Predict the 3D structure of the following.
Amino acid sequence: RKTAASRNHDLIPGVKRYSRAAMYKKTGKHLKKDWKPVAKKQSVAQSVTKDFQGGKRVVPAQKAPKWYPAEDLPSRRAVRKAAPKTAKLRASITPGTVLVLLAGRFAGKRVVFLKQLESGLLLVNGPYKINGCPLRRVNQAYVIA
């Protein structure tokens, strides 16, 4: 008598030869229209009285859980974080001011300041046609006004 060997053998431990989808196709479960997985029988909770060493004891059908949550769980305190404020714009920087970039690819380029974004970064422009510096976001720490 042969033992029932798996059709999906291990290539290496933990890695099977065929995928789950391939095995589904091999076993032909997609062809069986009324195929459904077998549902587990649900036990009805009834207490049973048994004779045990001369006395009687009640055995519940379902065991009590091994773990119960603690009643006095520590409550997490609400964390109040301050809303991020936009960085204060330097007085010397106003829309239309020519700035010099100090860092990055366009370091040393003179650019025109357009506006300050909500994040606090400065929106600057070359203009691109003149000096090749595109519309960029720059931290005001890296510019000279």
